[in-house]
Automatic annotation (TrEMBL):
Domain NIF system FeS cluster assembly NifU C-terminal: 89-140
Signal peptide: none
Species for this entry: Microbispora maris
Function: May be involved in the formation or repair of [Fe-S] clusters present in iron-sulfur proteins.
Lineage start: Bacteria, Bacillati, Actinomycetota, Actinomycetes, Streptosporangiales
Matches recorded under Pfam families: NifU
Taxonomic superkingdom: Bacteria
Protein name: NifU family protein
Annotated InterPro entries: FSCA_dom_sf, NIF_FeS_clus_asmbl_NifU_C
Transmembrane segments: none
Amino acid sequence: MTHDVAATGERIERLIAELTGEGARAGAEELVREVVGLYGAGLERVMAIVTEAGAAGALRGLVEDPLVSGLLVLHDLHPLTTAERVRAALDGHPAELVSVEDGVVRLRLEGSCGCPSSRVTVTESIERAIARAAPEVTRVDVESAVTLLQIGRRPS
């Protein structure tokens, strides 16, 4: 079974929503909070032990693992900021990070051919990369770099 933090969270919310009766739903929510809190506390200890040991290679391995990285974000333990993770996700994509604010990432596409289908494909690829690296991002706004047509004076 593949474990995707965001997908698992959505499944848990769907299962809780399917419970009938306010008591059952409240009990399930409390159970999930307790389990998530327990795993978060354990993960916090893992991060402290790895950091105290100066094990940079182990820390890098933890943050590069998609599942562990997602859990670190969930528990606000990821050593990289949202902007740093978005920049890393943009590596190899023709885009520049403009800003990250309140869960909204603003990007500027670079070197686009102007073809609408190409822009959509590139934008979707970028959005997937950002969702994997920074699941807390709620929206990605993409603007294209504007290339002005240079018109010179008529030769005299």
